[in-house]
Design a protein that fits this description.
Layout (H helix, E strand, L loop, with lengths): L17 H12 L6 E5 L4 E7 L8 E6 L2 E6 L20 E6 L4 E9 L2 E8 L15
Length: 137
């Protein structure tokens, strides 16, 4: 007996890429830095908050690549001449990615008190009914 994958189910036409999407999302969920929160603000609004203490606006890049929100951070190496007795504040580069559903767009981003807030908004399409003509043979 062969097991059908989720994307191969006969009633889910056009969802072949869903399994790849789930696998890609699972890989990014294992990253641990920087920590983040995801909030549902309203029915169609979400907020991703990342703890990016020590990063300035110019150190962070936010892009969307193939429905994947990419947030990257890289600080300049300004440690020359500094002697750390203890270094517990991470200053390493990071990359966080979030897969966005169809219709979800980035509404804005702001950096406040070491927290990066990325606002997402889902646009709800108007429901449509389309009649398909049947042609003869």
């Amino acid at each position: 007996m062969t097991k059908l994958g989720f994307g191969a189910h006969p009633f889910l036409l056009g969802f072949e890429q869903l399994e790849r999407l789930v696998e890609r999302t699972a890989k990014t969920a294992t990253e641990g830095y920087p920590p983040f929160n995801i909030e549902k603000i309203s029915e169609n609004d979400y907020l991703i908050t990342l703890a990016v203490a020590g990063f300035a606006e110019g150190d962070i890049q936010i892009t969307i690549e193939d429905r994947q929100l990419m947030i990257r951070g890289r600080q300049d190496e300004a440690d020359e001449g500094r002697v750390f007795l203890h270094r517990g504040i991470a200053a390493r580069q990071f990359q966080r990615s979030f897969v966005l559903a169809e219709g979800v767009e980035v509404a804005g981003a702001r950096l406040v008190n070491g927290l990066l807030h990325v606002e997402l908004r889902r646009s709800v399409p108007e429901p449509t009914v389309k009649t398909i003509e049947i042609t003869r043979g």
